[in-house]
Design brief:
CFAP210, 230 residues, mainly alpha, coiled coil, 5 helices
Length: 230
Amino acid sequence: MEEQRERITNRLLARMKKKMGDEDERIAREIAEKEEEQAKEEQAKEEKLQADLKSIAEHRVNVIKMKEEKEKEERLEGQKLLIGLMEADRIYQELEKDKIHRNYCANLKLQEAHVAQIAEKIARGENEKQEDAEYVRQKEVIALCREQEFQKYAKKIIDEQSKTTQNLYPLLKGLHEGIPTFSGPAYSEDQHCCEKQPIQPPYIGETAQEMKLLNEQKYDHTKARLGFTW
């Protein structure tokens, strides 16, 4: 009986010991599993943190790179814009120079035309003065020639009338009154010219026609001045 009790006790102790060993092993295994799981979680967190840090760093690098590329593009665009503005300004300056040159040429031509008009006006005035002076001279020459013809004709008439009548007073009076401008038959260079060759006045409009008419009617006028009506 004692041996059986001892065997049962030993058996129970062995079971209890085994049970305790199993429990310790289970606890140790659970602790190990928890530690392993915790280590995995810590590793996962570390890996995630490293991945996040790497992603942040890469994003920062990409942002910096994109910013640099954008700044480079903006610099290039600015340079292109500056070159375009400089070219536009150059073209504008060229157009302004051409405009100023064209305006200068136009003003110069206008001034030349104005000067030419003034010169033409002055020349026309000088020509008109010369024509007026020539007209006055021709008129004086014609008057002188008419007076000379009158003297000749009157002398001829007086000579003829002196053969048939003794009363020459009316003729002499008409001869004397017919020389209002000259005190006597004055012979100048123009008079000699009239004696040598009849002067034909220049025909200038109505004035020339009047001068021609006076020249054609000189003998009728001479008769009237001497008192003849035939």
